[in-house]
Amino acid sequence: MSAIPIPRVLGTPGRAVGALVALVALVATLLTVLPTQARAANNPSITVSGLSLVVSNANGVEEPDNTSVKVDDILKLKFAWDARNASARSGDSFQIQLPEQLRNRERLSEPMKVSHQGAEHTIGECVMDDRAITCTFNSTLDTIIGQGFTGLQGNGTALVLASQASDSANVTIDANGKQTEVPVPGGKIAENVGLEYKPQWMSKWAADVTSTSKKVDWEVTFGPDQVKEALEKNGQSLTVDGRTRSTITFSDELGPGQVYVPTKSDWKLSIGAAQGRNNFYGQVTDASGADKDVSQGDFDLDVTIQGNTATIAVTGPFAPQTNYHIYYSSTPTTADGVVQAGVEYTNKASVVGSGLEHSYSVHYTKSFTINVEMKPGFGGLDITKLLTGSETAKVPAGTTFQVGINYTLPGGATVDTYPGWKAPGTVNQTHTGGDTSMTVTVGEKAVYNGTFPVGTVLTLDEDTTTASATPAGVVWGSHTFTVGDQNTNSLTVEDQKSTAVTLRNSADPAAVEEGDFTVTKALAGDGDFSKSTFEFTYTCTDGTEGSLTVTGAATSEKSKKVKAGSTCTITEDSAKAGQNGYTLTAPAAQTVTITKDQTAAVTMTNTYARDMGTFSVTKVVTGLESVDNEFAFSYTCDNNVKGTLKVKADGSVTSGPELPVGTKCTIEEDAQSAAVKGYTLEAPASQTVTISEKEQAVLVTFTNAYTPEPKPEPSPSPTPEPTPTPSETPTPEPTPTPTPEPTPTPSETPTPEPTPTPTPEPTPTPTPEPTPTPSESPTPEPSPTPTPEPSPTPSESPTPGETPDPSESPTPAPSESPSPDPSATPDPSDPATPGAPSSPSGTPPAAPSDPAKPQEPSGGPLASTGVRVGLPLAVAVLAVMGGALLVSRRRA
Prior knowledge:
By secondary structure, the protein is mainly β.
């Protein structure tokens, strides 16, 4: 039979036994440790008792007479705790759990503090979540217990909300594991359907705020019947019949540290409870004009906001025995936009013209307190620190102050009268009292961690120089202590009670060393602007800014007060300082330093230069091929400036003088200087221009249109004889050359060519012998002026060609006469020589006095035309006469 294998682990008896021992030890360890950890999480030996509920406001002020609880109302939960027999150590805790009808008002934590050996010690922390309060001790407790601390017990409070309606007279609260029935004020929690109708005059209210609130919700409640009564007492009236529309006007004012929410739709009007209806009717309209319900009539809400004041006008058919509600909000001016703990936010409203006025304030403080139990025969105090004033937003959260407490024991007792009680602080020489202090934090309730014998008188004082932070520009105003509803700094200690004290300080603007400055306006340059106004703005390093308006030159205006040592920069509005027609050289911005109780002087100089421009003239000529003339112009301006200028018609321009912008000038051409001989001129009209732009010339163009004067055509009728110059010998009439015989053949008697060059062929001498009658063959004078009269029968004489332009037909020179040979020409001085005038009047020129020959006064073009026509005729006549003489001589 084979052996059965033994498992390896069982095969070693020593190892098996060791493993078993280790397993047993581990189990024992777990059994030991686990209960310890569970006990550290919650110590059931710590008892929680004395639970009660009382109606309270948001700051923990009890309202014991209020026995009507509805959903969302605030209740204060009070309790006592005792750990004297629980051997509490670091990590131990106790807990309170709320039922579904209640919930904590907010989530927060609060330290647990005790006084031991004259010093304050934080031994743990209590944390509030939605429905639980858990308090846990820390290692400091172990330390002070080791030093002999005993009596670990105390009490606490927490603000809770009624979260669910219940007809039960009690709610069940788990007090550290013990189910405890706690009575509800009034015996039930009712639904929140609104307030029971109570006639209202006019009241102010605000919703409670928490540590996370970013706005304050305000409410004004009024009853039209009561408002009517108040108005009528002041001589005014109001209709309240549910049909007639009337208006009630309210004036509302916010305190410091907040601003109105400007959104009009957030300003709402609602109808509340009424006689026979103990609930809210609801919203009917808002300030934006959006109606929600018109079944109760046409209501309007009009809101005008100016800074921290609002004017609210409510119009509608107000019903009798009905309350109305106006809702609106404000927001904190803190840097994070959250309400500042301990700051009182105030609001005041009044009915205009009625004398009705009401104020309300709201602030936040922590809603949980925890403290050590006071022994019988002893009591204490707690102080809630609040702030008011315009500079509260500058005060940082958590700012602390020291409050001095002077105590006097009752009835002449000394500290030795109370065995086991350690007198706090410094005991006086008689041992009948002493002085101590406590730290208070803005927005929190500070519980004095110590006790005093019943009947001890406490006198309180605050030293604002001990503030943990004093912001720049803030000064602490006088403080006020309030005990109950009395402003007093004294109280008497009550048995096992912490007397509530409220301490208020104002955060006011600090008085600073200040100065200011003046701005003086100076003017320079052109123009008189002494009656003008000049505007300036300034900004200073202390945040001051503003504007100044200075009228005229050499006048001054003073600034606001500015913190000494600050600098201010002053700038002129140069756009508004500009003047039409002038260029402004504006002053640069100036910076001035402010000195205490001194006024700095600043002068700002404006320099104005008149804007100048001019005009220019250009000449255009038509009808002439080229003109080199200068054309004269004159100008007259409305500022009494006059002058002349000359312009050529070559495309150039001539500018006038520099003139102020806006000046009007009339420019006129001198027509006489523009005249051109032989042409008629259509002269341009004068022109008026306005100098419109700085450093620009207004161009003016003058156009001269020239037209040539008409030229006379040759007359076909015989030209009348010119009137000879008076002389002794009358000028004979030209006689036509007779032709008795046929004219010889041209080859025998050649006729000279009418060309400047003589004919090269030999020809007989035209005049071998003196001509007996000089008048029969007159030769034209070499001068271009004398011209013989044309023959009465022009058709028998050679007709010259078309009359050329005077500029193209120069007067023939004497050498151009049709003489065959210049050497054979007789001396012109010889009276018998043909061609020589027999007398000065032999061949008169076309004199200007001849009325039959129109010409220019200067004897120009028309006279030249006469020469050009007469000379060829004379040459033709001489040629015919010469031929006749030659024939007659040969016959002879």
